[in-house]
Structure to design on (343 residues):
């Protein structure tokens, strides 16, 4: 705590003498007043966080020093402005009187950095002594030996211990003992007993899988995009409603979203409906199947019924060699006509 002493301080304490003539001050060795009483000796005031502590020594009757006993007591007068006295305290800002107090006397609830002034008297047999010298101080957090503010922590040898004894997350548990020092968790729950509180443990249940991944997986497993009652991860048409999950060709793609539901190699839109391609109403099948199984779709195969994966067409007539009756090129005759001959 900070200690405030008057200019008459002896060592680290304040010696308050009797005030001669209306509290104007005096020496500790001065003679007693007309009452034969002097103010308490060695009055000192220490400042704390929002509080002050007043201590004092013995009062004097003019002949012997004695502590207050039956029939005697001490009064403390205070105000938030200088000039406080037994006569003026009630008319001053923040004026207050504490009667019949004992040392040490602690006054709490004060405003930090606001100045308060104090005087004391000694009362014996209803006779009040002259007032002590006035001491004015301002409460505030106590500075530690390193010059820092130790209002919230303590130090050893000037070392700041606030990281250990402070409470960073304000959950009522000091950092040294808190299993989540930066995340408020007054209950200190620790499901997997790994020393890290659930509130800040990325794997609170200790199953080896980060909780964030578990949460994401849970959301994924619960997803039903088309609202057909079948979860997306099981739905063979996750974006098209199909409660029955019909799959005629067993290709794991539901019929309602499978372009070739029957698996015949022809898209259903063409396979199931023939298209009129002439003005004469001739209906032809586009034939997107592969009739000869050579890997070339009938629509572009130059030999639809004869397998010819290489699509060789020596004479370039659009009919593959495999099915072209005349595929040999005859040398030009004078009139420039090419005659096809049988092979």
């Amino acid at each position: 705590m900070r200690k405030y002493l008057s200019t008459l301080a002896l060592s680290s304490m304040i010696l308050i003498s009797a005030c001669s003539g209306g509290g104007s001050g005096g020496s500790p060795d001065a003679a007693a007043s007309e009452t034969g009483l002097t103010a308490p000796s060695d009055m000192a005031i220490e400042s704390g966080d929002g509080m002050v502590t007043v201590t004092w020594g013995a009062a004097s009757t003019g002949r012997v020093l004695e502590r207050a006993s039956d029939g005697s007591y001490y009064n403390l007068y205070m105000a938030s402005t200088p000039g406080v006295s037994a006569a003026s305290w009630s008319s001053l800002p923040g004026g207050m009187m504490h009667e019949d107090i004992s040392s040490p006397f602690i006054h709490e609830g004060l405003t930090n950095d606001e100045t308060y002034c104090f005087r004391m008297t000694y009362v014996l047999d209803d006779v009040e002594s002259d007032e002590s010298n006035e001491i004015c101080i301002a409460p505030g957090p106590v500075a530690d030996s390193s010059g820092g503010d130790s209002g919230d922590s303590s130090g050893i040898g000037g070392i700041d211990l606030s990281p250990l004894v402070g409470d960073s997350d304000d959950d009522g548990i000091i950092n040294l003992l808190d299993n989540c020092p930066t995340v408020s968790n007054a209950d200190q729950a620790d499901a997997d007993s790994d020393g890290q509180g659930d509130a800040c443990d990325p794997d609170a249940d200790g199953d080896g899988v980060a909780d964030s991944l578990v949460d994401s997986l849970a959301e994924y497993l619960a997803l039903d995009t088309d609202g057909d009652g079948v979860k997306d991860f099981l739905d063979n048409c996750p974006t098209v409603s199909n409660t029955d999950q019909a799959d005629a060709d067993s290709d794991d793609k539901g019929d309602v979203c499978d372009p070739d539901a029957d698996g015949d190699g022809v898209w259903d839109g063409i396979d199931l409906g023939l298209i009129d391609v002439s003005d004469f109403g001739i209906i032809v099948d586009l034939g997107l199947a592969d009739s000869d199984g050579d890997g070339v779709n009938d629509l572009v195969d130059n030999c639809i019924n004869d397998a010819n994966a290489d699509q060789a067409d020596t004479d370039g007539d659009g009919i593959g060699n495999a099915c072209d009756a005349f595929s040999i090129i005859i040398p030009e005759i004078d009139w420039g006509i090419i005659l096809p001959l049988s092979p």
In short: The CA atoms of residues 80 and 269 lie 95 Å apart. The first helix runs from residue 162 to 165.
